[in-house]
Amino acid sequence: MTHPSLLLALQSAAPAVVPADTAWMLVSTALVLLMTPALAFFYGGLVRSKNSLNTMMMSFVALGAVGVVWALLAYSLAFSQGNDWLGGLGNALLAGVGTEAKGTIPHVLFMAYQGTFAIITAALISGAVVERMRFGPYLAFIALWTVLVYAPVAHWVWGGGWLMNRGVLDFAGGTVVHINAGVSALVAAMVLGVRKDYGRQAILPHNVPFVLLGAGLLWFGWFGFNGGSALAANELAAVAFTNTFLAPMATLVVWVLLDYFRTGRATAVGGATGIVIGLVAITPAAGFISPASALVLGALAAFPSYFAIVARSRTRLDDSLDVFAGHGIGGITGALLTGVFASKAWNAAGNDGLLAGNAGQLATQALGVAVSVVYAAAGTFVILKLLALVTSLRAVPRAEGLGLDVTQHGEEAYSSGEGSILVMPDAVPAGVTAPALAPQPAAR
Amino acid sequence: MTHPSLLLALQSAAPAVVPADTAWMLVSTALVLLMTPALAFFYGGLVRSKNSLNTMMMSFVALGAVGVVWALLAYSLAFSQGNDWLGGLGNALLAGVGTEAKGTIPHVLFMAYQGTFAIITAALISGAVVERMRFGPYLAFIALWTVLVYAPVAHWVWGGGWLMNRGVLDFAGGTVVHINAGVSALVAAMVLGVRKDYGRQAILPHNVPFVLLGAGLLWFGWFGFNGGSALAANELAAVAFTNTFLAPMATLVVWVLLDYFRTGRATAVGGATGIVIGLVAITPAAGFISPASALVLGALAAFPSYFAIVARSRTRLDDSLDVFAGHGIGGITGALLTGVFASKAWNAAGNDGLLAGNAGQLATQALGVAVSVVYAAAGTFVILKLLALVTSLRAVPRAEGLGLDVTQHGEEAYSSGEGSILVMPDAVPAGVTAPALAPQPAAR
Amino acid sequence: MTHPSLLLALQSAAPAVVPADTAWMLVSTALVLLMTPALAFFYGGLVRSKNSLNTMMMSFVALGAVGVVWALLAYSLAFSQGNDWLGGLGNALLAGVGTEAKGTIPHVLFMAYQGTFAIITAALISGAVVERMRFGPYLAFIALWTVLVYAPVAHWVWGGGWLMNRGVLDFAGGTVVHINAGVSALVAAMVLGVRKDYGRQAILPHNVPFVLLGAGLLWFGWFGFNGGSALAANELAAVAFTNTFLAPMATLVVWVLLDYFRTGRATAVGGATGIVIGLVAITPAAGFISPASALVLGALAAFPSYFAIVARSRTRLDDSLDVFAGHGIGGITGALLTGVFASKAWNAAGNDGLLAGNAGQLATQALGVAVSVVYAAAGTFVILKLLALVTSLRAVPRAEGLGLDVTQHGEEAYSSGEGSILVMPDAVPAGVTAPALAPQPAAR
Amino acid sequence: MKLIVAIIRPERLNEVLEALYRAEVTGLTVSRVMGHGGETDRVETYRGTTVKMELQEKVRLEIGVSEPFVDITVRAILASARTGEVGDGKVFVLDVNQVHRIRTGERDEGAVTPTAVVDA
Amino acid sequence: MKLIVAIIRPERLNEVLEALYRAEVTGLTVSRVMGHGGETDRVETYRGTTVKMELQEKVRLEIGVSEPFVDITVRAILASARTGEVGDGKVFVLDVNQVHRIRTGERDEGAVTPTAVVDA
Amino acid sequence: MKLIVAIIRPERLNEVLEALYRAEVTGLTVSRVMGHGGETDRVETYRGTTVKMELQEKVRLEIGVSEPFVDITVRAILASARTGEVGDGKVFVLDVNQVHRIRTGERDEGAVTPTAVVDA
Ligand SMILES: Nc1ncnc2c1ncn2[C@@H]1O[C@H](COP(=O)(O)OP(=O)(O)O)[C@@H](O)[C@H]1O
Ligand SMILES: Nc1ncnc2c1ncn2[C@@H]1O[C@H](COP(=O)(O)OP(=O)(O)O)[C@@H](O)[C@H]1O
Ligand SMILES: Nc1ncnc2c1ncn2[C@@H]1O[C@H](COP(=O)(O)OP(=O)(O)O)[C@@H](O)[C@H]1O
């Protein structure tokens, strides 16, 4: 997804589908798709049991709602021929999206690959509003947000828009995905307000193994996210892949040490968080910097997010799963450090950064950050306020107390079945295939 | 696995192994293999805690039993040179299965890829008989079923048999896998009879997150199932992949809305079920229709299965995890809609369907459906009845009450260890390496 | 990773990156990385709930600590130009590891791929010391062990060292990974001593579904481990892959039968164990033997490990999760059977084994086994004894009683939040964004 | 007033609840417990380790009733919880000194009399 | 001496604990239970099956106190556990015959008097 | 008859069960509970949040015995559950009004006398 390599590919004389690139991009698309279920577990493990299904469904439903919106409209707005500000409608309703080569892979596959990014970006936001937002308005929000916020920013940075033309480097989505989602999460948390128990009761993760499972699967999927953003099975993919391998390792080590020195004990939730933040930070840089730089970048990236999380939890800002501290700050750190470590020696289609003597790239990166922060914040605020005119965004306090699983979805994550009485439908055709059914007497 | 493309490949003059195709098929085989553990979680989460290991083991053991039977015999019956009705014994005991090209991939890999389909198909059936069938007879059943039902049907549709020659289109297994398994499940549920608590007590899923995990991993693996059925890393694979990406998204959206309008709440179990049914329905069509058609097909496929599940649960038919409503009906819907949406514009080796003016294809598809329904039903009935002559298929009611984990496997899914007393083996060599062991006194 | 094929590739005139091989190796690297989280679940499910996070973190932290040590130093010691005994420092700090071809894939990718092996090997050892070893010393141990034990042995067998020159066949790590880890685990268990409850209380797996999840994901990842060790998307990869598909199936079937005949019931923990042992045993042989031989090897491999586990649990040797019986004995069985079944007909760059008339290969294999057993045992013993001079390796009995999750990591795997009181940090800026916070009164 | 504590089989819980509701006993508290009595122990195997499970899953009911309801309640439980096999459980009846309904502060008899359900 | 058994809402547990600590009642035992009373049942749906959940999650407190503490304790619970909505729960006070502190073997009054916390 | 309620450490459960079986007390019911007493609180950290765990895991035993067994039972528990460190737990002895064995309908003394194990 790095625009330079993409551009190159698109310019090359007779575009043709290359089997090896297709093989890798098929896999990459599957890997990125898996990240959304992975996120469901990362987030779902961090909330209380009574909200775990709701939290997981917020990710899963993005696979449906965002995916369909992407195919019908948002893909075209982001990637079809348009102007500096927005793509056109040439590919709306998947028109013109066939098996012809886009770069070196079939166009349909390119559309699907990009769709997986849109899906997970929207799902990331949910971490800020879990345990209190109603499911219907959430669904409406992510559908609108994909069209109104994600598609334009993706167009600016990757689709031939103005930030791309200014030379902003974002290999796999530091700006488009992580800053975008992180800032939107922050705004959404402020609009929604704090959970009723926040700051009054201890709210603990109900299943830390799920958090670890999510982190493990996210890392696995992220190889498709960053490695696949080379859009080919070439050296660039290998570099992006290796950096995605190394950076989170360094972040994890630093995080464990920070945890240890601050509280005397290295936590598992911390380890999982460190991995994800390393992945976030390397995302914009993955195809532009050396593996040695990736280790340094990963180590550095632990600090801002670590202390942001500690500081945030002392405020009345209930960004419940620290999406801003993780993805917003992690994404900004990564985007800026891309401007520090980038090197044409590792990607000729990229640019040199500060350390290679080009301080201007850092300024360009800062522009990209600033623009996406402002646009995402404004867009999210407007969408939520408009939705709030139509319906209530929050569950009522009583529903929040009972938990959103029961009140929004009518089910529980872990049931033993005790004290649950089967309600017989009126229309049971008695004894269709077997001994007559002793009907369950109406209890009480 | 689409026969036309396969045939083409096989006909091409000098068959040679193509590295890019091999790369993609290696991955696809791994992906499909992962679907069986994924199914174990999808099914295992839906049952009661006391039967969860047994349910999971029914999938896992298919990896062993069906895999070995496949390699020794069933592969040959399905895919080696034979007649219209059955393959020969040329490849029995893996004879002649070497590194020579089969299409453009090594023959051993083709055998393994096809084996993953046989395994998951058998495992799918288990959903209809969980919580009551004894483990030994189940094991015998799936081994026999693979040889007597799966292998012939696979031969008819994919191995050069009569349905293939009649032009039945089944890209990745709507008929061979899903209708076959779904109908067999229905018959097995009827032969086994209802669980003793069915219709009397509420039987609730003990772990809905596991159901979601299963659904997520199934989707991930299904990209290998459908995308890999192109048997190459080409445009056709990309189309099949993209359709496997889009169709379940549409099904998920429709399912969530149906749930919402029927009960006022969109359930997570419903979401997971919707995803799987979208995947089932797109399976026969994946390489024959356009991505836009895939969205429509996915949306349509939600309806029959949704209402079949609702209706089924009001009867005395204890197809416990709705394998028939999901895979049987979903597979039939997909197979027929393939005859509606198929288009030579998207796969020249396929055929046009109803919408492209070829109503005959729909009739051909109906033939494929009818044949597989009848054969699977008869085959399953005969095998189970024969087994019932030798041994009892069902656990006794007391064992069903205690749960099959304890009674069939001698273990519990989640143990705290309280009140469990270590039984010392007679032969403990006292104090081999360490302070003498105070032997646990025989309690009581 | 098979040295012969690697050597061949390295010798070929103009080394160039081959896209299809790169595609497959990108995927393989991701697959092997996933095995470490998978192991976290396999191991984490087998321990008691109060130690589950600690056990999982022992695997996860290897991703950080071993990964960083690998990139900085151990890769160079294992694979850079050196002598018979150790590689040089030419690639230390990733110097000279760029996008140039190593074989047919980019060098950075080769480094990452090999790194995933080092990580999981260290993590494997943890299974012998869970529920009692302190986290800090464990961290130090795996970092040192990677440099002092793993890197040399990897150099000997794969990096151009003396065992490679003697013709020891180890396709994907029977010696380097499994014997190495298994023997180190045995020694570590003896140095650490038995858990305080061992042999006194029943210590039961707290979550068997996690064990199955781990086994399923391990198998999936192992396709990258063995299939990727061909370092190319060619016929050899397909053979190694198919053998990795078949052998565990046979082991699983035999294991289930052994369980059934010994205790009358086939356990799920047994099934999961059987799969892993089949995978371990096929690892050294995967690229050297025929698929039919793989089935036989898998079936045979069940026996030694099965009875080793039964026997071990009757001793005072607390190799808690039977790493030695699984990986040590499984690896030895596989390494020796490689010398029995190997055949140049399946890999010309390999060698013939006993059955093909070359009894010498079996002796060569035995040499490889003996050397790695002795070196791993000695190395592990020395490292642990040195660490014990500096710090205490074991948690105090009281901490062992409370569980290592709470005492080492300050968190619990599954919290309900009951009776947990939020400790307000002193520095809460009151009411930053919202209604004043009623501060939680200091309880009591 | 009395507090009735009953240990029953989990699989009889629905029947017992139903019998109690029929007897117009609707206030009660339930918990999962493990019991040991005359039942045979279960044996389980985890890898090489064999384990005897001495405790069986049971459900514990706790029901505060006014004197006139004691016999009715006990009889309802005895009748609905019985299977006739070893392990059916026990019923204990304890004296209660005071009962309070938290919501209203009502005491004793008043506290155990059910209130009509009015709920939004 | 008395044994006070209170059934309360889970979400009030923290407030109740705090009120008890203020009243210097620090020895107590807590467990998760499910209750049935006047609350409306919840309906859940799993695929085609509709289910009525008759039991609500509650928390059970068990507190052994010496006579002078009985009223203090009951009042602390009643005040802190109340929300005013149906489902707040009940408090039962039972007579106790003997109390033993396991650690010291102390009996009765001595056994329920808290000890200073000295812990390494 | 008496009902003996004991709160003990989970890690002593096996020893206590064994001591009770030796004393020929084999009918009992066990549950997991959380206790608060004189033990120091545990501190845990989840991301930026620090939490004090005020409740410790304990196990609750409930044993109905006839009068001659009361002392034997209490003594067995006291001896086997003791570690000497704060947190060992308490034993309460309550009066029981009636006991019923559900399986047979036997009452009082008969209901708490163990039956021989005969099980298929
Ligand atoms: N003396 C007792 N005190 C407390 N609970 C008991 C006692 N005896 C039995 N129980 C409980 O009742 C259950 C069934 O008792 P058991 O003796 O097995 O059957 P039965 O009452 O049919 O003879 C036990 O599992 C235990 O939970
Ligand atoms: N008679 C009783 N015996 C034991 N527990 C009871 C009794 N009545 C109510 N409870 C417990 O108290 C809880 C609340 O009681 P409920 O009748 O719903 O509310 P309220 O006390 O506000 O009228 C119930 O869920 C149950 O756990
Ligand atoms: N007054 C009480 N009422 C009920 N349970 C109590 C009481 N005091 C203590 N307990 C229970 O006993 C456990 C141990 O008590 P604690 O005071 O910590 O130790 P010790 O008895 O050794 O002084 C507590 O965790 C709690 O479960």
What is shown here, in short?
The complex is a heterohexamer, with three copies of chain A (444 residues) and three copies of chain D (120 residues). Chain A is mostly helical and 444 residues long.
Verbal overview:
The complex is a heterohexamer, with three copies of chain A (444 residues) and three copies of chain D (120 residues). Chain A has 444 residues and is an all-alpha fold. Chain A folds into two domains: 19-390, Ammonium transporter AmtB like domains (Ammonium transporter fold, Orthogonal Bundle); 397-444, no CATH class. Helix content of chain A is 63%, strand content 2%. Chain A has 15 helices and three strands. Chain A has a two-stranded antiparallel ribbon. In chain A, helix 8 (208-227) packs antiparallel against helix 9 (235-263). Chain D has 120 residues and is α+β, with helices and mostly antiparallel strands. Chain D has one domain: 2-Layer Sandwich (Alpha-Beta Plaits), CATH 3.30.70.120. Chain D has three helices and seven strands. Chain D has helices at 13-22, 67-81, 109-112, and strands spanning 2-8, 28-36, 42-46, 49-53, 56-65, 90-95, 98-101. A four-stranded antiparallel beta sheet of chain D has the order 2-5-1-6, covered by helices on one side. Chain D has a two-stranded antiparallel ribbon with strand order 3-4. In chain D, a hairpin with a 2-residue loop joins strand 3 and strand 4. The longest helix of chain D is centred in the middle third of the chain and has 15 residues, at 67-81. The model of chain D is unreliable at 116-120 (pLDDT under 50). Chains in contact: A-B, A-C, A-D, A-E, A-F, B-C, B-D, B-E, B-F, C-D, C-E, C-F, D-E, D-F, E-F.
Q: What is the rounded Rg of chain D?
A: 18 Å
Tell me how many strands of chain D there are: 7
CA-based shape of chain D: elongated
Order of helices and strands of chain D: EHEEEEHEEH
Biggest pleated-sheet summary of chain D:
4 strands, antiparallel
